[in-house]
Amino acid sequence: xxxMILLMVFAPIxxxxxxxVVKNTKALNLTMVAVSLAELAGCLYLMFNISMFExxxxxxxxxxxxxxxxxxxxxxxxQAVATSLIWVGSSVFSDEYxxxxxxxxxxxxxxxxxxxxxxxxxxxxNDLYTAFIFFEAMSFASxxxxxxxxxxxxxxxxxxYLSIAVIGGLVTxxxxxxxxxxxxxxxxxxxxxxxxxxxNQNLLMVIAGLVFFGFAAKAGMFPLxxxxxxxxxxxxxxASTALSGILIKAGIFGVVVVTTRIMQSNEKWAMFVLxxxxxxxxxGALCAFMSTNLKETLAYSSMSQIGFIxxxxxxxxxxxxxxxxxxxxxxxxxxxxxxxxxxxxxCAGIVYQNTHSLDLNVVQGFGKGKKVLTACFGTAALGIMxxxxxxxxxxxxxxxxxxxxxMHLLNEVNAATGFFRFTEAIFxxxxxxxxxxxxxxxxxxxxxxxxxxWNLHKSYVSKxxxxxxxxxxxxxxxFGALPHQxxxxxxxxxTNFMGVHKLEHSVNYFSFVNIxxxxxxLAIGAVLYFVIAKxxxxxxxxxxxxxxxxxxxxxxxIWRPLVFTVLPFIFGFIGRCIDKSTDVFLxxxxxxxxxxxxxxxxxxxxxxxxxxRGIESPAFHLTVSFTYSLMLFAFGxxxxxxxxxxx
Length: 647
Prior knowledge:
Layout (H helix, E strand, L loop, with lengths): L1 H14 L9 H24 L1 H4 L3 E4 L7 E4 L2 H24 L7 H19 L4 H19 L5 H32 L4 H9 L4 H19 L8 H7 L2 H26 L4 H24 L3 H26 L4 H32 L4 H4 L7 H15 L5 H22 L5 H30 L15 H19 L5 H6 L2 H4 L13 H25 L1 E2 L3 E2 L9 H40 L16 H6 L10 H21 L1
Antiparallel strand pairs: 1-2, 3-4
Helix pairs in contact: 1-2, 1-5, 2-4, 2-5, 4-5, 4-11, 4-14, 4-19, 5-6, 5-11, 6-7, 6-11, 7-9, 7-10, 7-25, 8-11, 9-11, 10-11, 10-13, 11-13, 11-14, 12-13, 12-18, 13-14, 13-17, 13-18, 14-16, 14-17, 14-19, 16-18, 16-19, 17-18, 17-19, 17-22, 18-22, 23-25
């Protein structure tokens, strides 16, 4: 078992070195598909025998200097299965997708493999140090995937992605150090007991907030979502599938650990997470509704669905011993979203490789008459809309019922339920927006007349890719039509990790009480698309338009000024103060002990001679560079860490 776990995590990482010696990209792709299938088979074996293997711990002392510890949990293995499924499907599609752009493929497959192994390592982490090591390895290995095209858009997207990864990682590491210092452990299974008697709840809240920050950024949660709508459209479609389907779930892994372990039973924290979830869910859906870019719409959709999942995490805490429904909904929506986005982003990639555009006004009508593409995209769309008999309906029903359950419990003690009624309303409206923007995409691609004729020199999609998206589409329907035989069993293996008990009674998913929520969202979606959209985002005169000013965003209004202006100024000021104090000390020393020594005219203020000014390149401004800004931020965190260790 130890060898099997080690191979699962480290075989893909070692495979990342293969492109250094193998130049045939077709062989690299075939190898990647084979390894992904082997990983999927191994993960499925562990999942079906989880009662036998759960709790198995494997320690690797030689890795990353401090060593890492892996642990087999139901939650981790289920996410490992989803990760392997994404890599199988995306690797199969990569061979076809890169036919028209074979540049830098060896680099792509190298980092593609390393990202795979690091993601698996994260989900199987036994402690937060191990989770952090794999989390950072995953972040940096996936950066070349985002900037693969090396054009202006991908470089900008990569800068946003890398900056939030570096800053988020440093903040999270600070929180992990503090947690270890004040509780004595970062082992995930021991944290809850360690903090149970912790008296300083305000300090614990700060620690939780620091750890939460980096994981929330990776999940694309508001207001740390600026990288997400840029990275997804800029990255190649197979990489976008991984970013949306799995890598943002790595952030949810951390959110679950922080909420159910560090801040267990803390309703203030649960309320904070709930508010963040509501904002992420609604704003993501609203932006997706307005977007005119195919992959950007799907990216904002992922942000919105993350909001649904985060609401489930918070409701698990609010409900306490009654939180099984919320925990099931959280886990299942993670899995369902992975399958849905595998199909949707692959379909988007098929559209792009044939049309070389993602603009809805250009790709309009491309899918008309293409049966496989229509069926698969339509099935995934129905799944994410939450239409009954498709997988998304099951998980959304559980999440919705968890909110309703909380209102019932509050009524029993005559407490106010206003905020949770508001939460339910936003939940249903966000579901309506999901219906509206997916309807917009489907009608654009498959119903409207094509705006132009595309010269397809071969079949628009390969047989291998057709098989992959068809199989996953069948699973989307099967899981939704037979939830007790499929999804309920998957959720049941995660109860230990989520800190809940198994459901005592199965949920009647197809009763009118449960279907009613889905019907309300469908009705709202119909009104949004067929009434409101006609005057806002789908007009007869201009076609598909985005009424929102693209320059107005959280990233442009807050994060860029903070990272590139405020922080450099603060730490630059500190640096100048240190520099001046050194100058003063040296001046006093010279005056006291070296009176005859001549003080050069350039001593103060860093004055430069004419020769200095002549040789300096005017194009070089270190203080506004991306790297320098990150360095200054890291400098501040290092000072903080020294203070914590010495305090």
